[in-house]
Each structure stands twice: as structure tokens, then as C-alpha cells.
Task: inverse folding
């Protein structure tokens, strides 16, 4: 069993670690700098207050610690090589290391999920659960980035693990640890703190009458959860004004919407995403059946432990206008265990019907092995093939890197360029051997925030746009008409100088278009 688990963990780590050099030394994921820039600020100034709380700070502090360790090592390496630690080289080092940390956390989550399955049911369920999470496309994809989602899922899984232990052991220690992990989950990503209901289920499920509700756990559970959150985000208390401002901004963001990632049918959208991309058709169907089976047929304490948080959390994220697939990450440990239990029980039922005593060795072992492969391969072949292709693609030059090289070779020095988010990193276009920028380049969030005449009058020589920005305004013909008209006019009336396209993938290879500003 341990050999099988080790193989699963190594496979999980390989899927998550390969491709973590994506885009480097340039940073193309839009959310990573929110963590890394503040970690660098803390490391540089010694001020532990990030002064920005749209995210809680657990993973920012983890990245800060990593940078503190890395900087002297990087300096020693540069000194040994007799080179200067260029800012771009240093950026590549810290992002590569930070992404590898996320990959490791994602792999540790797979190990924790094994422990949950083994604790609630048996080793076979634990192995299936670990295998399912290890090969879940959504979890693999986001284990490549320095974002809060995978760390949040890790602490959610730990909360469930200790709740599962408390369900069996009835110990105050396990309940307290479960609540502490829920606090850390909130310290990684605010909405993940809802997993505290799992600790509450474990507590209530071990009470036989009302008198037993008078227990120290009633006080220790909320205190441990609050303590975990404040340990990981201490300035929620020490700088409450900034914290409340950031939290309100994030709540308003999810209520109002995010261009290109919003809708009113999120109940359906999240489920379809899991079915098509997040888990794959076969595994998503098995998972859905396992949820219904647990809710309608089983209805035990263990089923309640596995069901309450996913149902409440799904309601929470589906009720918002914003829809990011990564927000489903805290669901995955629960869904993996539920699916694993169903698969294991179906295989066990089939096993019980075979007359093994009539077969000579090693036929029974071979048949069981073939049966496991016959189930495992169809379940995960699609997602694994998809993620291997994605990992390989991440190691290839991004269209933005290719476009940057073309611009430096073909656009004259001193040209004035307007560019938007998700375009080539022109802010790094220095003349060799100097600190002077090669281009007068100005970055905007989106070019459509101004009129086309604005760019003529500045005057700019070129504008650069990205499909990761303009595509969001063509999802329908109703939303954002002004932005859509801007890009339609740009595409039809201004001369296209060059276009760069590549295989489409999340966060990779946007279409980059360079237009000449007409006079």
C-alpha cells in the first residue's frame, strides 16, 4: 500500500512541478504579483503589514520566508559564478521557487486526502482518493502558480482530516486542531474558512444528547479558528481599517462582477466546468453519483461530514456574480473522498461475486490488478492527457515572449507604445549595457478605457492589445458595448502591423496584435 501511495505522490508532484518555469523570467499570471510583490516589500522593509487585504496573508508570509532564505543563496551563487544578480534573473528565481512551493503543497494535499479516506473508511478508499486528487485537472493546473487556492485547499483538507479523526476518537485535541486548520484556511483565502462547519459537524455528531453539548469544545472550536486566522493574518486586528477596506472591496468585487468572468447562471456554470475541464467527463459523473448516493442512500455521520461543507460552499460561490473556476478548489478534497468511496465499494461488491477459491495463484492478484486499471484508466486518462499537454505547453515560449522579441527587432528605438494587460513585458525593454528604456512605453489596464483619438493625440506610434483582454467584451452583444465598439473600430480601421497566435491554454498564448497609430 505504501509503495502505491508513494508512486501516486511522485506522479502528483511530477504533474504539478513540470511547467513551473512558465514564462520566466517574465511573469504572465495576473494574480501572482499580488502575493510576490508584497512578500518582496515585507522582506525589503521588515514591515510585516502588507497594507493590502483583498487577500489574507498566510501565503504572502510563506513566500516572504522563502525569499528570505533564497536571497543569500542567490547572492552566493552569483558571487561564485562571478556575475551580477540581474533583476530579471532574480525575478525568475523567486517565481520558480515560489511555484515549486505551491506544487509541493498541492502534493501534500494529495497525501492528506489519502489520510482522510483511510481514516473514514479504509486504505483502499484512501488510495483511490489520493489517486483522484492527484489526477484532477483543476488541482494540477493551479498547483503551478503562486496563488492562494491550492494552499487554501491544503488547509481545508487538514481541517477535514482532523474532523474525521474527531468523529472516531471523540477527542478535544482533534476538534481543536480541525478548527485551527479552518482558521488557517481562512488565512489563505477568506471563503475557505467556511470549512469550520466540518469541525462543527464532527462535534455535533459525537454528542448523544443535549447535555453533552456543554463541553469545552464549544468555546475552544471558535477560539482555535479565530486564533488560526489571526496567526496567519495578524493585521486583520492590528490594522483593522485597512483589513476591513480590503475585505469589503473583495466582497463588492464578487457581487458586482469581473469583466469576462461573470454571469447569473453560476449554479450551472461551475458544474459544467468540472464536467468538461476541471475533472473530465467520467470522473465528474462518478463524483456526482457519489454525492447523490451519500445524500440519499447512505446518510451516515461520515456522509454528513463529507457533504455539508461542499453543499454550503457551492451555494456560496454560485450565488456570486463572479465565477473563477479556481474557487472550486476547496471542494476537491471532499469530492475525491466521496468518489473514492463509491469506486472502492463497487469494486469490492464485484470482488465478492468472483469465486476466487477456484482460481490458482497468481490469477486472483492479476485479475484484481486488471480490474483496478480498467476502472482507473478511463476515469483519469482524459484529464491526465490534457494536463500533460498543458505542462509541456507551459514550457514553450509564450506568444508575449515571442512578440517582445519581434518588437525589439523590428520597432525603432524611441518609439512610443501604448500597451494593455496580458501583452509583452515592454517595461523590461532596456538598451543593452544601460539603464535607459528602449521605448517610451505606457501600460494601461485596458486600452478601451480611453478613446482611439486619445492615442492619436498623445501621440503614440503603436498600440499593442491582447485577446485575454479584448475577448471578454465579445462574449455577448449586450455587456460592455463601449469597450466592444473600441476594439471593433481598432480592428477594422487601424493598420495591423503584426499578429502572434499560439495553441490556446489557460494563462498561456493570448493572441497579441500590434497596430500602427494612423496620423
Result:
Amino acid at each position: 500500500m505504501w509503495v502505491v501511495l508513494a508512486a501516486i505522490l511522485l506522479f502528483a508532484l511530477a504533474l504539478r512541478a513540470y511547467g513551473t518555469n512558465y514564462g520566466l523570467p517574465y511573469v504572465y499570471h495576473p494574480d501572482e504579483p499580488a502575493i510576490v510583490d508584497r512578500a518582496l516589500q515585507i522582506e525589503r522593509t521588515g514591515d510585516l503589514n502588507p497594507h493590502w487585504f483583498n487577500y489574507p496573508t498566510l501565503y504572502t508570509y510563506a513566500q516572504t520566508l522563502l525569499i528570505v532564505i533564497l536571497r543569500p543563496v542567490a547572492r552566493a551563487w552569483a558571487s561564485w559564478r562571478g556575475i551580477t544578480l540581474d533583476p530579471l534573473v532574480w525575478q525568475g528565481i523567486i517565481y520558480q521557487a515560489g511555484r515549486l512551493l505551491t506544487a509541493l503543497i498541492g502534493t501534500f494535499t494529495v497525501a492528506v486526502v489519502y489520510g482522510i479516506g483511510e481514516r473514514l473508511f479504509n486504505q483502499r478508499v484512501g488510495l483511490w482518493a489520493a489517486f483522484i486528487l492527484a489526477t484532477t485537472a483543476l488541482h494540477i493546473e493551479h498547483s503551478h502558480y503562486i496563488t492562494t487556492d491550492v494552499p487554501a485547499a491544503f488547509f481545508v483538507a487538514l481541517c477535514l482530516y482532523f474532523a474525521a479523526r474527531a468523529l472516531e476518537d471523540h477527542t478535544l485535541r482533534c476538534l481543536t486542531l480541525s478548527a485551527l486548520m479552518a482558521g488557517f484556511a481562512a488565512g489563505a483565502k477568506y471563503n475557505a474558512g467556511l470549512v469550520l462547519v466540518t469541525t462543527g459537524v464532527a462535534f455535533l455528531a459525537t454528542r448523544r444528547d443535549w447535555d453533552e453539548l456543554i463541553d469545552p469544545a464549544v468555546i475552544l472550536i471558535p477560539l482555535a479558528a479565530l486564533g488560526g486566522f489571526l496567526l496567519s493574518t495578524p493585521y486583520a486586528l492590528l490594522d483593522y481599517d485597512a483589513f476591513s477596506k480590503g475585505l469589503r472591496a473583495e466582497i463588492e468585487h464578487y457581487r458586482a462582477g469581473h469583466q469576462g468572468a461573470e454571469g447569473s447562471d453560476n449554479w450551472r456554470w461551475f458544474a459544467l466546468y468540472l464536467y468538461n475541464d476541471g475533472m473530465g467527463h467520467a470522473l465528474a459523473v462518478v463524483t456526482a453519483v457519489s454525492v447523490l448516493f451519500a445524500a440519499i442512500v447512505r446518510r451516515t455521520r461520515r456522509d454528513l461530514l463529507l457533504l455539508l461543507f461542499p453543499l454550503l460552499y457551492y451555494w456560496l460561490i454560485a450565488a456570486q456574480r463572479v465565477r473563477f473556476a479556481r474557487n472550486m478548489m476547496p471542494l476537491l478534497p471532499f469530492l475525491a473522498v466521496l468518489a473514492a468511496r463509491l469506486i472502492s465499494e463497487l469494486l469490492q461488491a464485484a470482488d465478492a461475486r468472483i469465486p476466487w477459491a477456484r482460481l490458482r495463484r497468481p490469477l486472483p492478484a492479476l485479475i484484481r490488478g486488471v480490474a483496478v486499471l480498467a476502472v482507473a484508466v478511463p476515469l483519469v486518462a482524459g484529464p491526465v492527457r490534457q494536463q500533460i499537454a498543458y505542462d509541456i505547453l507551459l514550457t514553450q515560449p509564450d506568444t508575449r515572449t515571442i512578440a517582445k522579441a519581434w518588437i525589439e527587432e523590428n520597432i525603432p528605438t524611441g518609439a512610443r507604445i501604448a500597451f494593455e494587460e496580458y501583452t509583452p513585458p515592454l517595461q523590461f525593454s532596456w538598451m543593452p549595457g544601460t539603464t535607459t528604456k528602449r521605448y517610451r512605453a505606457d501600460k494601461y489596464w485596458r486600452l478601451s478605457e480611453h478613446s482611439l483619438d486619445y492615442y492619436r493625440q498623445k501621440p503614440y506610434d503603436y498600440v499593442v492589445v491582447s485577446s485575454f483582454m479584448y475577448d471578454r467584451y465579445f462574449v455577448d452583444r449586450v455587456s460592455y458595448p463601449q469597450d466592444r465598439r473600441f476594439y471593433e473600430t481598432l480592428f477594422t480601421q487601424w493598420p495591423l502591423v503584426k499578429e502572434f497566435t499560439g495553441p490556446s491554454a489557460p494563462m498561456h498564448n493570448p493572441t497579441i496584435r500590434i497596430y500602427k497609430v494612423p496620423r
